[in-house]
Hints:
By secondary structure, this protein is of the alpha/beta class.
Amino acid sequence: MLDELKGDIRAAHERIAGHIRKTPVMRLEKGAFGLDVPLTIKLEGQQVTGSFKPRGAFNTVLKHRDLAQNGLVAASGGNHGAGVAYVAKTMCLPCRIFVPTVSSEMKRQILRDLGAEVIVEGAGYAETFLAAKGEAKKSNALLIPAFEARDTIEGQGTLALELEQQAPDLEKIIVSVGGSGFIAGVAAWYGNTAQVIGVEPEMAPSLHASLAAGQPVDVQTGGVAADALGCRRVGDLGFEVAKAANVTCYLVTEDEILKAQKDIWRELRLIVEPAAALPLALLQSGKITFDSGVKVGLVLCGSNTDPAKLGI
């Protein structure tokens, strides 16, 4: 499965290359953030719409152009919706985005600014996705799932392909986990050539709980990163890929997330959303440690947040 997905990720990269940015990496010396390992940081917050989500959205639409002519529909707390809305605007397609009540007003406004019609429905992603699915069936629009779709996983995996090109010496790659589409794409690309490590908020432990149970399970979600990572249940395909690639998953607290978010601003002058601060939060927490010479990659996956909340 992993080898087949890796080939599809390579094809996805060629397919979407003219539509997305190859985001930069930053190499940090030992001692940065008080850590005793050299870090390579992938600045995916510099992607169009401020997150990795357009990768999967473009891959889906470009693979299914005929189905997209009736418009696009998605369910999203914000970043996936922005990615889909950007694709729709770029390709002159109508777009309806269903968002849960937990989504921030700032992210809703981003969707409107991109030309999408925004419908608030459902307390969490599961309910919101059902509403979007019903709309797609009624209007014959193309439904673009946020994570539980192979096309989405292939597109998100293109980030890992880029990262390997930019930093081929990485041994550990740490990424935030929501519904599992992103980590599945990264894990499928790296396979067993580098260890992929997931990190979730303690208040949204969907992959962590599922790995412990040996199958996808429902969890309660909330907290500062809920609008991006608050997925009640990981996707079946994403879970299988993560398991096949021997992904491990750790949890961090709310305070650890907020501290890492502020430290990224203080040390790098980069604004990231709480969901993107989790990889650093994990390293700073001491819940995982590496030998001093191990080369570690962190993906800062999104930058869509209100700077005022950082107190800057």
